[in-house]
Amino acid sequence: MSAPTTLKSWRLLNQLADSHRHDRIADYFDADSKRFEAMSLKVGGLFLDYSKNRVAPPVMQALIDLARDSNLEHRREQMFSGAAINITENRPVLHTALRNQSQRPVEVEGQDVMPAVRASLDKIKTFTHQVRDGQWRGPTGKRIRHIVNIGIGGSDLGPNMVCRALLDYQRADLDVHFVSNVDGRHLKKVLRGLDPEATLFVVSTKTFATQETLLNAQSAKRWLCKNSRCSDQEVGQHFVAVSTNKEAALEFGIREENTFEFWDWVGGRYSLWSSIGLPIALAVGFDAFSELLEGAYDMDRHFVEAPFEANMPVILALMGIWNSNFLGAETQAIIPYDQALHQLPAFLQQLDMESNGKSVDLNGNTVEHATGPIVWGQTGSNGQHAFFQLLHQGTRFVPVDFIASLKADEEVAEHHFALLTNMLAQASALMNGDTQENHLSYAGCPGNRPSNVLLLDELSPRNVGALIALYEHKVFVQGVIWNINSFDQWGVQLGKRLANDISRNIQSNTDNYDASTRGLMGIVNRGLRPETGDSGDLKVGSGT
Ligand SMILES: O=P(O)(O)OC[C@H]1O[C@](O)(CO)[C@@H](O)[C@@H]1O
């Protein structure tokens, strides 16, 4: 496909952005009393209100045309049918197969992958029951009370976010923890107070080659050997692995029967539906995990079947493209008004920024337009007392996604009422600002700032599954329109290579580094190894 900037609809959108530059969103509601009904959608347990975007009807039409001109229908069909759309890695992108509830086969190189997907779910189911029913015990006979997932990026953020979101579905006698940072204090903090003989480690890593995860897993093994009555041979009973690289897992010492597979056609940041979701199933039970998959499947069906005008992922994607490519927004704020969704911004940061943080298109050309926004966020109402000042009065234009669930426990009803009324107030304040005459004073809020509001009937596994699939497909649609590959992440390799180089060279071979890096290497080296010479000039602490 040629660059989107060459498309007629794209050029029209540029003209419309100019001609509507001074529009006020609030005026659209005066002009059309049915705007809220026209610009909101309900899909399953999710409700999206996108009427508070600076989008006049001709803009909406041109955006829909842009989706059509971008061959989105064909690209979507290619993804669902297993075409190798991840062209730089020559892989299909089939996270949707992991939650395919139909009997429809999904082929990869002519092979239906669904039998393997179902077999993997059966293994997760059996293992989950064994652990939760107390049949799976450590070699010293104790049942498992603590699950510790060791993984990073897509092997952490998804399961971590979902486990936090579904806290109400978890049992008090089985707790789930996540260790990701290579900083040893993360593992130390998590292991503090855990009974090693009642702890199960899930080593989650697609490649089984990620430094952070391997270092943390080795340290966890040492901790278990040192602090339990297990022999070296028995330690294996406390470790399972989730990976596409079974050989490496076996080499690490994981028993064959304790390995859970998945496949290279599943991107890390799209992998929580696979065995990478094992910690979720262990935390909330296999039935709730299945409901999560079913919710995502419902969203897949909607994405494939609904016309673009009433297609929630497509609409959300187009609002983002209008705000960033035509109105100049650099960032996208994600503000969940639900404490249980506090990990959602971090999860969406990887999903969106690792997918669409690209500047070379599918033809290998440098793009001439903005691509993935900077995604950031924090829970509301905390954000109100932190950065909302800038959202209301700052010079920057920040589109916001507000996300909340309607249902809450009786015991926190008063809190929940305050939470939701604050969210509604913030979305309204961003759009309307305050009265005219105040605008020039330091207390005035200019308003005219867009937001989407996403309401979940309740924070159930099904709705959480649908919510995540919604954003996965939003990211996909934007990648198609920007004509980039949303499914590789070559940009992360350089830093990893350099880290290996530096750790090899830091003691004796720093000449080939720039002066700043060389200087810092010296300081760090002296900090880490005081015996290598005085650190008179700058104390960086012992580090050991
Ligand atoms: O699951 P793995 O192979 O350990 O990789 C972890 C993460 O590292 C990345 O490759 C980025 O470095 C992510 O794409 C991935 O989710």
UniProtKB/TrEMBL annotation:
Residues 525-544 are annotated as: Disordered. It is found in: Cytoplasm. Keywords: Cytoplasm, Gluconeogenesis, Glycolysis, Isomerase. The active site is at E354 (proton donor), H385, K496. It catalyses: alpha-D-glucose 6-phosphate = beta-D-fructose 6-phosphate. Signal peptide: none annotated. The keyword Cytoplasm applies. The keyword Lipid biosynthesis does not apply. It is an enzyme of class 5 (isomerase). PANTHER family: GLUCOSE-6-PHOSPHATE ISOMERASE (PTHR11469). Catalyzes the reversible isomerization of glucose-6-phosphate to fructose-6-phosphate. This is Glucose-6-phosphate isomerase. It comes from Marinobacter qingdaonensis. The gene is pgi.
